[in-house]
Amino acid sequence: MEGSLYLLFIWVLWIYSTFIMEKSKAFRLPIAAFALIMIIFHPVHFSVMSLQISGSSIILLLICYYLTSKFSWRQQLHLLFAVFALMVGYAGFLLLELYDPVMIFIDRKILLSFLLLFISYVIYPSSIIKRCIFVCLGSLQGDIVFAAILSRMDFPYIVGSLEYMDIIVIVSAAFICIETIMKLSKVPKINKMRKISQ
Fold it and tell me: TM spans, by residue (predicted)?
């Protein structure tokens, strides 16, 4: 079922941040509010010009634009070029899938998730926040470009559909797992350094 991974992830995120996460954590309230807003706007769709855009994707875009505004101008410039390249590549992939679906022999969710994960680590190997912003802005704006092309042919298409949200969840979960593994792998090294210093 499309959107099942997204709904599961966002509900787990809200429950964890609301009831399990320590209240002293500064990012507890923003995460809980984000998850709740995404749940509320999940069934909502907006019509912008000739495009149908999901409420969740608009929230995601606004948050990414806000976080980007906090970067330095050099970081913003780098992100601009990186997002533009990903936008074109993502829209091109969707067009390739539309015109020649035989070439896409792997499940599109898995393939797109892997490609986004790989490219994000190449562009931003050290910052999970920048990776998330890069993936969300590039893929969502690529989805908008794809929807604009389809609208000229009178093909119905929803920007930020449930299937798209599933892909974002897979990539986000992969980010979290990789970051957790990397942090856990550093703990033994830190302990060894402490023993040597003692």
Answer: 6-21, 26-44, 50-67, 79-96, 102-124, 131-152, 164-185
The residue with tokens 């608009």 is 58
Radius of gyration of the chain (CA): 19
CB atoms within 10 A of CB 13: 20
Structure-block tokens of residue 100: 């020649």
pTM: 0.89
Q: How many CA atoms lie within 13 A of 153 on its CB side?
A: 9
Query: Six-digit token pair at 84?
Result: 């533009």
Residue at 5: amino acid letter? L
Averaged pLDDT, 151-158: 87
CA max distance for the chain? 71
Report d(CA 175, CA 184) in Å as an integer. Answer: 14
Q: Are 5 and 170 in contact (CB under 8 A)?
A: yes
| 118 contact partners, CB below 8 Å, separation of at least 6 | none
pLDDT at residue 75 in the model? 95
For the chain, the distance separating the N- and C-terminal CA atoms, rounded to the nearest angstrom, is 56
Burial of 64 (0-12, 13-18, 19+ CB in 10 A): buried
Q: How many C-beta atoms surround the C-beta of residue 68 within 10 A?
A: 17
Going from the C-alpha of 43 to that of each of 31, 37, 46, 86, the distances in angstroms are 20, 11, 10, 27
pLDDT of residue 49: 83
**Strand 51-54 to strand 45-48: parallel, antiparallel, or no bridges (unpaired)?**
antiparallel
